[in-house]
Design brief:
The complex is a heterodimer of chains A (120) and B (156). With 120 residues, chain A is an alpha/beta fold. Chain A has one helix spanning 2-28; strands spanning 31-38, 41-43, 46-50, 55-61, 66-70, 75-79, 84-89, 95-100, 113-119. Chain A has a single domain (30-119), classed as Sandwich (Immunoglobulin-like). With 156 residues, chain B is mainly alpha-helical. Chain B contains seven helices and no strands. The chains are: A alpha/beta (120), B mainly alpha (156). Chain A binds chain B through residues 71, 100-101, 104, 106-111, and chain B through 63, 66-67, 123-132.
Chain lengths: 120, 156
């Protein structure tokens, strides 16, 4: 009787731990946002994020080296040509922020921009 | 009135120049410098929004290195540029009084829009506003002539 009680207790604890860990995992899994960079645009070029909500920015270059810099968000990501970089990011303030390619990529480099809208 | 004055000055200056590349005379040079400083190059009151820091200088030096060095050299003073003296007008040293007497806003305007008639291209859209303002900062703190060597493209 005592052994059955102990076994049931451990099974219950294991089950609770499993359920809890799944919940925690589900809550913390950051959203993956895929962005393609190529001369001289990002696609998509407007993204809405939530303040305090972590995301993974998965940026792929389809051609040459690129960058993505948001001065106000203290974010500067470099992307090698024909490669993908995954950058974790958590916006800490709300507003509209314009990012800019930070690696010179040719004649339209100065107009290669992307906008983040960070909401509450 | 300003446009008319510019037109008259052009008429006076252009015929003696023709289309052959040659060094401008003193009169032509002085007239063109005056026209650019006082009439054609705008944004005289523009202020550089970037702080004067080592980071801004480094960013300006890097942005200048994208392609400005092809004509102006690594030091902005034409070091190693083989055609600098064979253009009309010749490439000015960016450390010269002629260039340094432009305001920050005018230097930004020149990089944005280029200068005609000359080989100076318009860089708006090719460089971002921040990059251009950082270049203006670099121009105000150019290194000694020759101290950075010459562009790699001319040393092969």
């Amino acid at each position: 009787m005592k052994n059955r009680f102990i076994a049931s207790f451990f099974i219950a604890v294991l089950f609770a731990a499993l359920v809890f860990s799944c919940r925690v995992h589900a809550q913390e899994a950051p959203q993956r946002i895929e962005i393609v960079a190529q001369r001289f645009r990002y696609s998509p070029n407007e993204i809405t994020l939530k303040k305090g909500m972590p995301v993974i920015l998965a940026i792929t270059s389809n051609d040459v080296n690129h960058g993505m810099k948001f001065k106000e968000l203290d974010l500067d990501i470099k992307i090698k040509k024909h490669a993908t970089v995954e950058a974790p990011f958590t916006p800490e303030k709300t507003g509209t922020f314009v990012g800019q390619c930070s690696v010179f990529c040719g004649s339209g480099h100065g107009s290669m921009k992307i906008t983040f809208h960070v909401t509450e | 009135m300003r446009r008319l004055l510019q037109f008259v000055m052009m008429i006076l200056v252009l015929p003696p120049c023709g289309c052959k590349v040659s060094a401008p005379g003193n009169f032509e040079r002085r007239v063109m410098v005056g026209i650019k400083h006082d009439f054609t190059v705008r944004n005289k009151s523009g202020k550089n929004p970037l702080p004067s820091t080592a980071e801004t200088f480094a960013a300006g030096k890097e942005a200048f290195g994208h392609y400005c060095i092809a004509c102006h050299g690594l030091d902005g003073q034409n070091t190693g540029v083989p055609f600098a003296e064979h253009m009309s007008p010749p490439l000015p040293s960016l450390a010269s009084a002629e260039v340094q007497s432009y305001t920050d806003g005018q230097l930004k305007w020149i990089i944005d829009n280029g200068i005609a008639p000359s080989g100076m291209p318009a860089s708006r859209g090719t460089l971002s506003d921040d990059e251009i303002w950082s270049i203006v900062h670099f121009l105000r703190h150019l290194p000694p002539a020759g101290s950075l060597g010459e562009p790699e493209m001319y040393s092969h």
